[in-house]
Amino acid sequence: MGITVGVIGTGRLGREHVRVLSGISGVDSVGCYDRVPERARAAARDFGARDFVAAESLISESDAVCVVVPTTEHERYASAALEAGRDVFVEKPLADSVGAAENIVAHARAKGRVVQVGHVERFNGALEKVRDRIDSPTFIEIHRLAPFSVRGTDVSVVGDLMIHDLDLLFFLLGREPAEVWAKGAGVLTDGPDIVNVRLEYVDGCVANVTASRVSVEPLRKVRIFSQSRYLSIDLLRGTATEYRKAKTFDKGISQLRAHADGYDKLQLRDFVESETFLSDGEEPLRKELAAFCRSVSTREPPPVTAEDGLKAVRLASRIVDIIRSDPHRGPVSRK
Cα(296)–Cα(212) distance, rounded to whole angstroms? Predict the structure, then answer.
């Protein structure tokens, strides 16, 4: 017998949750609630779900609950579901403050429930293709640019967009940065709308991360440099390219340094070889929600835990504090 999953919030992203969950093996039924009843009714009609007029009723009749509401309401609904003994999926970021995120984590531990956070980029097919090729990075550069949207402006661009990449850094490097620099500016809102952050790690790795929600064209690209290779990952298009030293690298460099005859005819392929990888084509949200449903059924820890979400919220909060307290402030060491 499968599980019943309820979705709280059926705006643009919540509708996608209802759609995807309705097609996942092991999910017997899907319910949905929204503070605007017409939205819940529309999602239920379009995807064969059941709409509810109260969040409490939805929670009581579900085995697990997806919280897909504005970030400022994450703690409220996640805590209500946890208190009722339900497993919870919370869209990113886990909460709008460190305190609220800590409360969700504590509540989940006290109730012994599964909590997964919606850091969907971990399930991006392009990243999955090259994950095992990422070895001891020395420099990481990430750009996440998006056109302006009212959705998500309840938090800064750090909490709305950059939070994805802060989680990716924890995922790839497995540790906190030792020092953090941050600059940002509000363009269309009171909070930072474009932010650049430099993070330094104790092993010498440096990450440079930029997020903007006032861009004309969307961009989601990760570049990872190490001693022997360079990876360029286009998260938006689902492709990745690896550049590495060719077998003829040493010979080519020797010719170049010696200015041997014909050195000006050397081509890039004399130094570097490349390989391109394509995403498996599966929708990241489907993989993400399928993983959550498996954790609910098997009681195994989810791939993105509440503790993972808390780490990203804490780092995001530090970054926003740096920007707001003093735009000329220097490095802040880890406490």
Answer: 35
Burial (CB < 10 A; 0-12, 13-18, 19+), residue 313, is: buried
Pick the CATH number of 125-281+315-333 from 3.30.930.10, 3.30.360.10, 3.40.50.1980, 3.90.1720.10: 3.30.360.10
| 135: enclosing H helix or E strand | none
- Alpha helices by DSSP H, listed for the chain, are 12-21, 37-47, 55-60, 74-83, 98-111, 125-130, 157, 163-173, 249-258, 284-298, 306-325
**What pLDDT is recorded for position 256?**
66
Question: Structural domain boundaries of the chain?
Answer: 3-122+284-302, 125-281+315-333
What is the pLDDT confidence band of residue 170, given thresholds at 50, 70 and 90? very high
Non-local CB neighbours of 254 within 8 Å, separated by 6+ positions: 260
Tokens at residue 62, please? Answer: 């579900």
The tokens 């302006």 sit on which residue?
148
What Rg value do the Cα atoms of the chain yield, rounded?
A: 22
Q: How far apart are CA 225 and CA 77, in angstroms?
A: 41
229-234 and 179-185 beta bridge pairing: unpaired
% helix / strand / coil in the chain, to the nearest 5?
A: 40, 25, 35
Query: Looking at domain 3-122+284-302, which of 3.40.50.970, 3.40.50.300, 3.30.1330.60, 3.40.50.720 is its CATH number?
Result: 3.40.50.720
Is-above-0.85 flag for pTM? yes
Q: What pLDDT is attached to residue 247?
A: 78
- Please, which pLDDT band fits residue 226 given cuts at 50, 70 and 90? very high
